[in-house]
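Researcher: We're teaching a course module on how sequence relates to structure. For the next exercise, students receive a sequence and then see the predicted structure as C-alpha cells, so they can try to spot secondary structure elements on their own. Here is the exercise chain.
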Amino acid sequence: MTAGQLSPLGLPGLDPRFSRFVTVPDGAELEHPAAAEHRWHLLDNAEPLAALGATPVGTILAVHGNPTWSYLWRSLVSAATAQAEAGGPAWRVIAVDQLEMGYSERTGRTLTLSDRIGDLGALTDALGLDGPVVTMGHDWGGVISLGWATRHPQLLAGVMALNTAVHQPTDAPIPAPLRLALKRSLLAGSTVQTPAFLNVTLSLAQPALSPEVRAAYAAPYATAERRRGIGAFVADIPVDERHRSFPELERVATGVSRLQVPALLLWGPKDPVFSDRYLADLVNRMPHADVHRFEGAGHLIAEDIDFAPVVLQWLSERVLTNTPETASAAGHDATPDVGDAQAPAPAPLWSYLDRLRDSNDTALVEMAPSTGGGPRTVSWRLLSRRVREIAAGLVAHGVRPGDRVSVLVPAGADLTAVLYACLRIGAIVVVADAGLGVNGLSRAVRGAWPDHVIGIQRALLAAKALGWPGQKFSATRLAAPAARALGVTASLSQLAAAGRAAGGELPPEPQPDDLAAILFTSGSTGPAKGVAYTHRQLGALSETLSAQFGLTVGSGLVAGFAPFALLGPALGATSVSPDMDVTSPGTLTAGAVADATRAADADVIFASPAALMNVVATADSLTDWQRVTLAGVHTLLSAGAPLSLPLLEQVSALLPSATVHTPYGMTEGLLLTDITLEGILESDSESTDAGGVCVGAAAGSATIRISPLDETGAASGPLTDAANVTGEIVVSAPHIKDHYDRLWITQRDSDRDSTPDRRWHRTGDVGHLDASGRLWVEGRLPHVIVTDTGVITPVGPEQRVERLPGLGRAAAVGVGPSGTQQVVIVAESRPPARRPHLASARLTADVRRAAGVAVAAVLIVPLLPTDIRHNSKVNRSALARWATGVLAGGRMRRP
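Model: And here is the predicted structure for the students to work with:
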C-alpha cells in the first residue's frame, strides 16, 4: 500500500490477516466497455486457511449494505477461521467493500443495482471463485447478493440474508426513514455533505455500539468526497416502477422465487426500515427457508446478536448435509412422530360439526352474549351452518388455503365459528392472547404477519394504530364510516351472507399434515413464541383429551381456560365459557363457574390455577343452589401450572363429588401427564423429600424422559427414564407441537433429540421421574442455581421453606456468577409485610434449617412478583435481579 492511502488496519475486532486489496476489471454494463480496472477491498480468510492446510468446503460471499462496509462481517470471518483452526469445516469467507463504499475505490461512476450485481460478478470472476458458494447479504447488500445468486446458479449452494428486501409492495409506502432521506432537499445534505445518514444508521444498534466500533464504521467515510457513494446508494433505491433500477429489482425478486437451495433468514424485528413486511415477502418467495426472528434486535442485527455461530451451525446442518431428512420449511424441522406414515389420521376438529349438522341439541352456551340478557344457546345445527357460511364467505373474499388469519375475538359462539371456518378451508389460524398486553400482542401479530385479521372493533383500532398487516374483517357490523376508517372489508354477518350467496361451496378439506394453527405462548418465560400445529396434531390432542377424561358427545364442559374453550365442538361436548375475561384468569368467580355449570348442565370444568385461586377466594358468596350445582360436577381439570396441595384441597371441598386432575402441559403440548388429588396425596406419602411437584404419569401415548444436568447446570446428558435423576424434562407425543414459527434456533434446540422415528420436545422445565414413573417438576432450566458445591433446583427448597409457620410463598434464587452462586430465599410473610426487609436472625436460621441447602440470605417481601399471565407462577428471574441489587447495597424497594 502506497503512502497516503486509507487503511482499514488497527480497527477493533478486525484481524489484519483478513484485509486485502485486489484489482478487478470493470463489471458495469457499459455501452462501450473500457478496459478500466478498479481496486476493491475485501476481508478474505483464504491465506489463513491455506496456512492451516485446510481445503475450503465452500465460500461464503458476504455483501454489506448502505452505509456500512465489510467490517460488518468481521465476526463471521473470524469465527469461520477459528472453526477451521479447531478442525471443523473450513469455510472461506469473502466479505467485500462494494465500489464507492468502505475502503474500495471511488470510481466516480453512478452505479445502478444492475451495475452493482455486475461488479460483484466481475470480482468473483477475477478471484476465480468456483462452487459451492453461499451468499450472505444485509440491507441493500441482500438484494445485490441475491442478484448475484440468481445470475450464478451453477455455483450456488445456499443463500443467507439479514434484514433486507427484494420487493416493495405497490400498496404500501417505502419506510419513513428512507422517504425522508430521498427528499431532494435533504438527500445530499444528509448523506454526503454531513454524516447524518451514517450516524442515524449506526444509532440503530440494540444495544448501542461502543464509541470504538462506531468510529470504525465511520472511518472510511470521513469526508464528503468519501461519502458520495452513500448518497448515490440511497438515490438508487427503486421506490416505484419509474425508477431506473426497478426492472432489475423485479428480476431479482422473480429469480429469488425460483431458488431451491437452502436458505436462512435472520431478522431483527425492531428495524424501522426492513420490517416484518419484507420478511413475509421473502418467506412467501422461499417457503423452504429457515427463519429466526431475534426479538430485541434491529437493523444492525449483525451487531445486535452473536450471529456467526448460528450461521456456521446452519451451514453444517443445511448445506454440508443437504438431504431430504434435513430439509426445512420456514423454520420447521419435519421430523415425523412414530408411525405417522402408517397410522390413520385422527378425525379433523370439525368432524362433529358434520356429524351433528342436523341436531338441535346444544353445542354452545354463551353466558354473556353481546346482545345482553341471559344465557344464549347455540344448537349443533346452527353452529354447523354458521361455520359453513362463514367459511364460504371467507373463500369468496379471497382467503385461501395456507393463508394466515389472526383471530382477535373474545371467547364465545363467534370465536368458535370463525376458528372452525378457518380450519375447514385450510387457513392457518393465528391466536395470540390479549393478556400479552398491547405491545406483546402487537409483537405476536406482526411476527406472524397474517394475511387477514378478524377482530372486534377494539382490536381493529389497535391494528390500524399499530400498522398490523392483512385484510380486515370485523366481528360485528360497523357503521360505514367506521368500517372505511378501519379498512374493514366485511363483517362476520356479511361474510355469512356472502357464503350463502355462494351456495356454501367449500374447497377440499386440508390434509392432516397441513398447518392448522399458530398458538402464541403466554410470554411467561420470555417473548411470546408462535407454536405451530398441524391438523393431525390438533386431532391427536382432541382424541387424547377424550380418552383421558371420558369426554364424549353429551358431556357438558365449562371452559375457564382459553385453549380448551375451543375444543368443545371437536369433542362433541356442550361447552360454555363462564362470564369472565379469559385474558385475565383472576376474574373468574365461584358464582360464574356455578352459573355456567348450570346453564350447560356441565359435569366437567377446565380452569387455570390463577382462575381457581379466585374461585376459592369468592366461594363465600355462593348461594345454596349454586353450591348444589357445583356438587354435581364430576371432573375438574386445571392446566397452566402445578396446583399447590392446599389449593387442591380447597377446590375439592368446593366440588365434593369431583375428581380433581392437575395435568402437566404447555402451549407446545397441552396434555402430557395427569394426576389426581388422591394421586398427589399418595405421592406425598411416598416422597423421600427429593423436592418438586408431582404431576403424575404420562397421559395417553405421551412419553417422558429426562436429560440429566451436568455440573454447569446444562441439560447435556442422554435421555433416560431412570428414577431420581434430575434434568430437563423431554417429551414425545403425537399431539406435541409441529414447530416454532419463524424461530429456527429455538426449534432446533427444542427438538435436538429427535430422530427420523420420533419427535422429542425439550420443555425447558427441570424435574425427575420417581420409581413409579411419575414426573416431579423442580422448576425452570434458566432458574437452576449453580453453586461451588453443586447444582440446586429451586422448587424443593421453596416447598420446605413454605412449610414454616408465618411464611407464604417462597422463591429460591441464585445471586452471583454461575458456578459460585449463592442461594437467596425471598418469601412472603403471613400476615403480609408492609415493606421489604431482611429477615430476622431467628427466621433466617429457621429458613436455613428448613431449606436443606446453604442459604446466604433471607429477604421478606409483601408480595412475590408473578409473570404477566400466570399469577400462580413466581417470576424468579425478576427476583434474582432484585435480590442481587439489594444485597449489593441497593435500595430495598418492592421487587
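Model: If you want an answer key for the exercise: Residues 348-353+361-535 form a domain with the Rossmann fold fold (CATH 3.40.50.980). The chain has a mean pLDDT of 90.
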